[in-house]
Amino acid sequence: EVAGLSEGAYRVLTYTSPLKALEELYQYHSHVDLVISDYLMPQMDGITFLRTLRSKELPVSSIPVLVTSTEAGPHDIAAARGAGANYYLVKPIKQETLAEYAAIFCGRPR
Length: 110
Fold this sequence. Notes:
The chain has four helices and three strands. By secondary structure, the chain is of the alpha/beta class. It is globular, with a radius of gyration of 13 Å.
């Protein structure tokens, strides 16, 4: 469950494996409006995840990605943006803030 997003307005899928998430994105991309990814993950870091996603063909490569992390350094944010992140939020993140950004990226009223 993603805090603030499982209240019926969004269909939320969560993955513990970035490899599984990428596999599902390739297969079901037409049903995905936004990816929320952590910067630090097992098997693959967020930068590699972003570069892999952005290297695919359209429309998969154009899915908006919001990166979340405890890493708050300017170089971390720049690396994520350089790899294709649409936005970067530093944890902890208020539920309202996450819901607001999800609404913006998904084109939904807030």
